[in-house]
Amino acid sequence: MERRDTHASELTVRIRTGALLTLILLGAFQARQVPGILEGLSTLLGLLGCFELLRAMGLLQGRWGWLVYAGTALCCLLFPLYIPRLPIPVLAAAEGAAAAAGLLSLLLSGCGPFPRPPYIRGLLGGAAIGASFACLPLLGDSLFTLVLPFAACVLTDAAAYFGGKALGKKQLAPLISPHKTVAGSLCGTLAATVLLWLVGFLLQAWLHRPVYVSRLSLYGYTASLLGQLGDLVFSQVKRRAGIKDYSRLLPGHGGLLDRFDSALFVLPYTVVFLWYLPLL
Fold this sequence. Notes:
There is one protein chain. 74% of the residues lie in helices and 3% in strands. The protein is mainly α. α5 (119-133) packs across α9 (256-276) and α6 (143-167) crosses α8 (213-241). The longest helix is centred in the first third of the chain and has 29 residues, at 2-30. The protein is globular. The model has no long low-confidence stretch (mean pLDDT 89).
């Protein structure tokens, strides 16, 4: 009974923190006409994410590590200004390269401690975090597009958690994240695909205009897979660093990267997807 009460209390804290994050995102959207609001939010998120990543890698203990952080911080400051000007094919190529690098890391890097200070990996990882968050202003034209990538990730996470609890036996990646199961992964992908398909029909009825429901469902499927890849990539870093959470910034969730690990892969993908396959 006590264990169940503790679990319920932790879930309540997670929900409250999630609600606060949602209010911050909605507030930034409502104030988007103020110059620099979304850009400032993306810069702040990038700086915090880079700090958590480099600290987890053990790079913030010497002069060279802080120089790496200075480099990633500069990226976080400049990317929100320049990434929106990039041609979409360039952004698509960068997203593909990041996804491929993440997949190769999962397959080849293992879960042992970092053999030496990974300065180059930290710099590239920090720059990728800054670039992903810098895509937020590109999604700020409507509340739907701004919320869409986070909704896909939350749906996947929630369905994977409860589906894994109910059906999960076979582990998905036991060395990286022992609690993730194959059944949970399938449930998460199915939930994002089906629920966003249903959202498409609801939007059609509400907006009284055509919505590409099949595209929205396809987006849910692909975004769910990418989000789970991002989750595993950042879990692998934690495993190699020997830590449970990146920080205690967000009660019930851990650090910023613990909450937004999957979204980091999905944000730029959403920009590219909506460019080539508009939903409305």
